[in-house]
Design a protein that fits this description.
Length: about 475
């Protein structure tokens, strides 16, 4: 079996590792060099995976919750044992700094650990009948085989956040990882097998073009759920496509997160949380702060301190333990970041720090002040290390500006006023709110958005509910 950094380069299909006869190159976004030639799956491999997932579902759903829990627990332990290997793999294939990538591995493993326990907490209900000779029950059963599409920016966590609850519920899953970062997903499938999980319960289909694979699996009536994390544009298309086979659907789509900084903020702490919300993974997350609104009385001081903090971030080789900002994943993402900054400066924004390329797809952490509503980065998700700052005069204006978007995934605010924190949190049209917290995500908490940011929730008990159907039982009994 061919491997790179210990990860297979074949597709995980059925009980084996499959070569399709075609490959595509995975390149380092830092060096541009080819890391591996990975098997390129198409319609044939999708059909094989669908058949295997359906066949495996019959046996996996009949295992007890305790049996599934034991396999998931072993998977968790193996992921934790290989965290350095997985972190290095992520740093190589998508440019996440290795220290940050190690944190992602722990986050990814935490979902497996959580759902190893949640598997044993899936319970039904009994409820009263109006008839003396009937007993009424509701039970929960796995929805069926699942097709998951995961993004490149969290190559480990987005796999486990979907696969762990699905497997805990008794579903089987086929994962189509992003073409930029398939190696981590394949490595996780290898660890699943090593943990004793049925190979066909978790299959991975790497491919350069997702359309043929997705078309086969979405059109297959036997695949009963689709879960997707990615752009809103693609999510809207999937929403229409799954309707033809009436599948269950979860969508975690784009964001355009606001961060509101009120006049009572402790500036040093507020800057620290804005940096955490804005610059992790070089700004390439759907929950990154994309619009920073600061009360006009403290704006100058805030911008000065944010600029200094951004300029101090270490940019470079993601394999360097000291690096905090790695390369952008590819030239398309890099080009959009450059275009957003150029547009903003041309329309009157002031460049406080950054605003320049540093070689390859490295881009300097950037702060822009004097940002206006007509600039592209105020209506489009930048997905890069650019912090645009705009001022507001009162609470109502801040809330109105924050909600003036089609997106509704994450929002943040900083205030020391408890009443304001509650009022503003309740008024923001978002699925996730960080109050004085730039990194609110937790495996045991619900993750998901409203409006064009998606459907459904991942994490906590909400996450496993997405993979369960409710079945009602009415039992007529004989009188004694």
């Amino acid at each position: 079996m061919k491997t790179i950094e210990g990860a297979p380069t074949q597709a995980a299909i059925g009980d084996g590792w499959v070569d399709s006869g075609r490959t595509f190159d995975v390149r380092s976004p830092f060096s541009g060099k080819v890391l591996a030639s990975v098997v390129d799956c198409g319609e044939k491999e999708a059909r094989l995976a669908a058949d295997a997932a359906v066949a495996a579902f019959g046996g996996w759903k009949r295992t007890t919750a305790y049996e599934r829990s034991a396999v998931l627990r072993k998977w968790f332990e193996l992921i934790m044992a290989r965290q350095d290997q997985l972190a290095r793999l992520m740093a190589l294939e998508m440019g996440k700094p290795v220290a940050e990538a190690r944190g992602e591995v722990r986050y990814a493993a935490a979902f497996v650990e959580l759902y190893a326990e949640e598997a044993k907490r899936v319970s039904g209900e009994t409820f009263p009948s109006q008839f003396a000779n009937k007993r009424l029950f509701a039970i929960k059963q796995p929805v069926g085989p699942v097709y998951a599409v995961t993004p490149w920016n969290f190559p480990a966590a987005m796999v486990t956040r979907k696969a762990a609850p699905a497997l805990a519920a008794g579903c089987t899953m086929i994962v189509k990882p992003a073409e930029q970062s398939p190696l981590t997903a394949i490595a996780l499938a290898a660890l699943w097998r090593e943990a004793g999980g049925p190979p066909a319960a978790l299959q991975v289909l790497p491919c350069a073009d997702p359309v043929p694979v997705s078309r086969i699996l979405i059109d297959d009536d036997r695949i009963r759920k689709v879960t997707f994390t990615g752009s809103t544009e693609v999510g809207i298309k999937l929403y229409g496509q799954v309707s033809h086979t009436v599948k269950r659907l979860s969508l975690e789509l784009g964001g355009h997160a606001p961060f509101l900084v009120f006049e009572d903020a402790d500036l040093d702490l507020a800057v620290r949380e804005v940096v955490a919300a804005k610059y992790r993974n070089a700004g390439q997350t759907c929950v990154c702060a994309n619009r920073i609104y600061v009360h006009h009385r403290i704006a100058d001081q805030f911008v000065e301190r944010l600029g200094a903090a951004a300029a101090a971030l270490v940019v470079g080789d993601p394999l360097d333990e000291q690096v905090q900002i790695g390369p952008l994943v590819d030239r398309d993402v890099f080009g959009k970041v450059e275009a957003h900054v150029t547009d903003a400066v041309a329309k009157g924004a002031r460049l406080v720090t950054g605003g320049k390329a540093l070689g390859g797809t490295l881009y300097a952490p950037t702060v822009l002040a004097g940002v206006g509503s007509g600039m592209r980065l105020m209506s489009e998700e930048t997905f890069g290390p650019v912090a645009p700052v705009r001022t507001f005069r009162d609470e109502a204006e801040a809330i109105g500006e924050a909600n003036a978007t089609q997106f509704g995934l994450a929002a943040y605010l900083w205030t020391n006023d408890l009443s304001r924190a509650v009022r503003v949190s309740e008024s923001l049209d978002y699925g996730i709110i960080g109050v004085n917290d730039g990194v609110p995500s937790a495996p045991q908490a619900p993750f998901g958005g409203v409006k064009h940011s998606g459907l459904g929730r991942e994490g906590g008990h909400w996450g496993i509910d997405e993979y369960l159907d409710v079945k009602y039982l009415s039992v007529r009994i004989q009188s004694s």
